[in-house]
Design goal:
heterotrimer; A mainly alpha (120); B mainly alpha (234); C alpha/beta (314); B: mainly alpha; elongated; C: 314 residues; alpha/beta; Rossmann fold; Alpha-Beta Plaits; 2 domains; six-stranded mixed sheet; four-stranded antiparallel sheet; 14 strands
Chain lengths: 120, 234, 314
């Protein structure tokens, strides 16, 4: 289930964030409990709890005592802002480096982007 | 202390099953002798040579199987020792009672068929129907054989090959028990006629049997009181 | 149950199996005990279960000494592969005694587990396959619900589907009835994610005791031109170095802060995570046996028993 190569809680947190971004999880919607996550992914519940704590700290989830974890209404917007911030360093810069390494002129890339952008 | 109900129940149940099978075989042999030859003696008397070996292995199994079972289930050696002692103290009379029953059933059969139920060896009892004496003799014998088995098994469990050194002591315990009933000392290839002339008498026999039992328990306890559970290869 | 081990020493005649081990484990977590064959895993667990007496040092479980202490031992269960609890005629006989001797035994749960592992009550234990024997041991261990439950390679003979049944049952039952669990295993890839903390022992000493996710986040592989890898890893704890032509890949253990990571990226070095299995292998590699072209296996500070206090922090 996991690649065993980076802390699992980070992988779980990333997955939940992805679900929030894509709209699978909506604002004020309840997420599965730590124990459900632990059983489903076959991981230690403390590890799952750590993922949830990280998301609470980041403001993606909030806790209702005795009930469970819910998606913060502002979460999609917060996450989108975060992603926007890191978009160029995480996505564009590596692409440019790759293009340079294999000899694709930047002009080609720009053309492609404009084309697909036009279609999409 | 907790009563060793399940330890006792499991062993008594098994002993009863073995006794039934054993009794059937002995009776078939008896009838066989009567049909193809002449039957003048108690066959059950000869057959009672075997159960003492069964008793010896019950003593062995207590240490080899049940001691590790108890420790692995979170019981202390002390708890096991107490439960095993109670088990032996109740198990030996049970075995002895089964042999008494064998003699009585045989007496009934011989009586109906008109065969003479003669004894061929020296015993504490003069006739197979002297129930208390028959019971006392086999009780003392079984106590001795069980504790001897437990003692030797404990030595082998703890020291493996070094356990060989316990054999003379174990045989000594059995010897003591046999001497107490004033009977012949019977082992394969060994038939020592003990001097039964002084006729020990029932109180002496029972006292000696009890002493043998307690001595065997004490010696076994001295070996298992801090024995490590073996790391057996699977 | 909380476990406190202080300066533990265990000798077998003239062989020292455990040499000065000190650690403490909190109650209510799943721990992994990792070590090579002969590293002392079984000996350590045997002492924790009161199967054998320590030769020196102290061992306390739930604050009390263990050996021949019924208050403690009845709360502790160690399932090894020797089958002490099951080598008794039939499956139902093993259950009969377990039920009677185990104070927290859950009979209904035991039945359910027997079904799940496909064990018939009338089967003779001697006739069971190795996998089924292991499964029966696991049933006894789980249904006993002991506050300290330890499995010493107990699931080694089980095939993969049965092992997953075990992992799922263990997790589910642990969450429902929290207790202290110690798993000793070789199957690190499979079991790793179940563990909250990991203890690695080697040659009778504690090498590392760490929260498993922290341990994973500390292991990093550094790959790139050999000279730059060497320059970057100087001063770090290098567990292993492998070389392919002019490229080198070093495994370092320790926290790399963002500045260090940026520095690596700027130097054209690739940083990657390390699997628990690999970390374990490097941390317990026999000295001098390291990969050929690497520098002498600079066994980490944590690698010597004398440095174990670093592992005691938690």
């Amino acid at each position: 289930m996991f690649d065993d190569r980076s802390p699992i809680y980070r992988q779980i947190a990333d997955r939940i964030k992805a679900d929030v971004l894509s709209g699978v999880l909506k604002g004020d919607e309840q997420v599965m409990s730590t124990n459900q996550y632990a059983a489903f992914y076959r991981i230690n519940p403390a590890t799952a709890a750590k993922a949830f704590q990280q998301l609470v700290d980041e403001g993606v989830l909030y806790k209702k005592r005795g009930i469970g974890m819910f998606v913060s209404p502002a979460a999609p917007e917060v996450l989108r802002a975060q992603r926007r911030e890191s978009f160029f360093t995480d996505v564009v810069d590596p692409m440019v480096a790759e293009a340079r390494a294999i000899g694709i002129p930047l002009g080609d890339i720009v053309r492609r982007i404009t084309e697909t952008g036009g279609h999409g | 202390m907790r009563f060793p109900s399940r330890l006792l129940a499991a062993n008594l149940f098994f002993a009863a099953l073995v006794w039934v099978a054993f009794y059937v075989v002995v009776t078939l042999i008896t009838v066989g002798i009567a049909v193809y030859g002449t039957l003048t003696k108690s066959v059950w008397e000869g057959a009672t040579q075997l159960p003492r070996w069964f008793a010896l292995f019950v003593g062995v199994a207590l240490i080899r199987d049940f001691l590790p079972l108890y420790i692995a289930h979170g019981q202390t050696r002390r708890q096991f020792g107490a439960q095993a002692a109670v088990t032996v103290a109740l198990y030996a009379p049970f075995l002895s009672a089964l042999l008494v029953l064998g003699y009585l059933l045989e007496a009934l059969l011989y009586h109906l068929a008109g065969w003479p139920q003669e004894l061929s060896s020296a015993h504490l009892f003069g006739s197979p129907t002297q129930v208390p004496l028959v019971f006392a003799e086999y009780l003392v014998e079984f106590l001795a054989w069980i504790v001897a088995g437990a003692f030797m098994a404990a030595a082998f469990y703890r020291w493996r090959g070094g356990g060989l050194l316990s054999l003379p002591i174990g045989v000594g315990l059995i010897f003591l028990g046999e001497a107490a009933v004033g009977a012949e000392f019977r082992l394969p290839f060994v038939r020592l006629g003990l001097d039964a002339g002084s006729a020990p008498g029932v109180p002496v026999t029972l006292a000696a049997g009890l002493g043998c039992f307690l001595l065997g328990l004490a010696m076994t306890w001295s070996i298992i009181r801090d024995v490590p559970l073996r790391n057996r290869p699977s | 149950m909380k476990i406190e081990v202080n300066g533990l020493r265990v000798d077998y005649h003239d062989v020292r199996a455990i040499d000065g081990m000190t650690f403490s484990l909190d109650a209510g977590k799943i721990y992994g005990l990792l070590g090579r064959n002969g590293s002392g895993k079984t000996t350590l667990l045997s002492v924790l279960a009161g199967f054998r007496r320590e030769s020196g040092g102290t061992v306390r479980v739930g604050g009390r000494p263990v050996f021949e202490n019924p208050e403690v031992t009845r709360e502790v269960c160690l399932i090894g592969d020797a089958g002490e609890t099951i080598d008794i005629d039939k499956v139902e006989d093993a259950i009969y005694f377990a039920e009677w001797l185990r104070p927290h035994w859950d009979a209904a749960y035991a039945e359910e587990l027997l079904d799940r592992f496909g064990l018939e009550r009338k089967m003779s234990v001697k006739a069971l396959s190795k996998g089924k024997r292991s499964a029966l041991g696991v049933v006894v261990g789980l249904a006993g619900r002991s506050p300290l439950t330890m499995f010493d390679e107990s699931y080694l003979g089980m095939d993969a589907p049965s092992r997953y049944v075990f992992y799922d049952a263990l997790l589910a039952d642990f969450m429902e009835h929290p207790r202290t669990v110690i798993l000793s295993t070789h199957l690190i890839e499979e079991v790793g994610s179940l563990l909250e903390e990991v203890m690695i022992i080697d040659r009778g000493g504690l090498v590392l005791h760490e929260e498993s996710q922290t341990m994973l986040s500390r292991g990093t592989s550094v790959t790139g031109p050999a000279d730059r890898v060497e320059a970057f890893t100087g001063g770090l704890t290098v567990l292993n170095t492998r070389r392919l032509g002019s490229t080198a890949s070093a495994t370092v253990y320790g926290d790399l802060d963002d500045a260090r990571r940026r520095q690596a990226r700027e130097a054209g070095l690739e940083l990657g995570p390390i699997a628990m299995q690999d970390l374990f292998a490097y941390l317990t590699e026999p000295a001098g046996d390291a990969a050929p072209a690497g520098p002498p296996a600079d066994v980490p500070a944590e690698g010597t028993p004398s440095a174990t206090p670093s592992g005691d922090a938690r």
